[in-house]
């Protein structure tokens, strides 16, 4: 999947989800998903750091 297809799919998913939710629910879901993304990024960074140290 190329970048354009990926962003189009994410946009379509967001629109589909948003159609069934109230504004407050969208806000909460957005916050939860942002935290999920941040946590996954932290885990990935930690793993990369640990792997780099193991190679030294």
What is the strand and helix layout of this fold?
Layout: H1 3-19, H2 23-55
Global morphology = elongated
- Largest sheet report: none
Number of helices: 2
Beta-strand percentage range: under 5%
Gyration radius from CA atoms, angstroms: 16 Å
Number of strands: 0
Q: Between the first and last Cα atoms, what is the distance in angstroms?
A: 35 Å
3D architecture notes:
The mean pLDDT is 96. The chain has a domain at 22-56. It has 56 residues and is mostly helical. The protein is 89% helix and 0% strand. The chain has 2 helices and no strands.
At a glance:
The protein has 56 residues and is mostly helical. Helices cover 89% and strands 0% of the residues. It has a domain at 22-56.
Notable traits:
about 55 residues, mainly alpha, about 90% helix, about 0% strand, elongated
């Amino acid at each position: 999947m190329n970048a354009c297809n990926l962003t189009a799919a994410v946009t379509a998913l967001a629109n589909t989800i948003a159609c069934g939710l109230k504004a407050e629910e969208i806000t909460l879901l957005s916050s939860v998903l942002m935290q999920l993304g941040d946590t996954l990024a932290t885990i990935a960074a930690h793993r990369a750091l640990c792997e780099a140290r193991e190679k030294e």
